[in-house]
Amino acid sequence: MKNSSTGPQRASSQADAKPAAGTTMTRRRFLKHGAAALLGAGLAVGAYASLWEPNRLEVRRLTLALTGLPAAFNGLKVVQFSDMHLGFYTGAKDAVRVVEAINREQPDLICFTGDMVDGGLDALEEAIQPLSGLEAAFGKYSILGNHDFYDVAKLIRMEEKAGFTVLRNSRVMLKRGGEAIAVAGLDDGIWGRPDPAAALDGLPEGMFKLVLMQEPDYGDTTAEYPVHLQLSGHSHGGQVRLPWLGEVVTPPGAKRYVQGLYYVGSRGMPLYVNRGIGMTQLPVRLLCQPELTVLTLRSEGV
């Protein structure tokens, strides 16, 4: 009997299977999806950097043990803020937020380290009232930054109206318990003429001296004088920082010292660099939040 089969059946294989229509990822579709993902990520980062992070104020607290600080001033609480840049995407509303944050800390001394405005003075006019609400037992002191030179005389009058004592190569004496310290402020290092000798002239040898100076790199000069602590701003911490790389760019005067605490010169003078409140050039902050610094000063050995 003959086999009725017409021949061997061809076994089916995976190689013969064809993908269903619409399931393949062509090169064009891959690139399209990749571009969309990158665009979405870019928009998300942009929104974060322009809308979210600039409004996230970090309160950074440090305790510094300092040689030469009199025992009567042991525990002195100094609040530093810097670089408001009023008029460039910051205004009276931001001043209210900062003032409230500072007053919650109940500081003994308030120091503003320059760049109150960014160009004109209209925004400062609106911010005078909230800034007037800053409270500290030893008062509030301000220096000029490179962005404050639009109309220096008028700016100083406005800051004084808000209750600041503006220090320009000058100093004040703070007294407590029969002892004293000096708080000195230097003129801006870019558009002004800083003169540490004039600011410190006549002070007793060994007296504790706190110096306010906008540009942190000037600390290399300040450290040559008998200064115990310098507070600076100007850098904005770079304003834009990248993971593992740090700051992308910093302005002249803030190339060596960018953010945080440093010890400068042969004496190891402490220098603290505040990241500031506002922005300049670009209205963004990335991985570099606005900063309010609360420094508690301790007398070494007490």
Automatic annotation (TrEMBL):
Pfam families: Metallophos. Residues 76-175 form the Calcineurin-like phosphoesterase domain. The keyword Transmembrane helix applies. Residues 1-15 have a biased composition (Polar residues). InterPro entries: Calcineurin-like_PHP, Metallo-depent_PP-like, Metallophosphoesterase_sf, TAT_signal, TAT_signal_bac_arc. The chain crosses the membrane at residues 35-52. Residues 1-23 are annotated as: Disordered. CDD domains: MPP_YkuE_C. Keywords: Hydrolase, Membrane, Metal-binding, Transmembrane, Transmembrane helix. NCBIfam families: TAT_signal_seq (TIGR01409). PANTHER family: PHOSPHODIESTERASE YAEI (PTHR31302:SF31), TRANSMEMBRANE PROTEIN WITH METALLOPHOSPHOESTERASE DOMAIN-RELATED (PTHR31302). This is Phosphoesterase. It comes from Paenibacillus ihbetae.
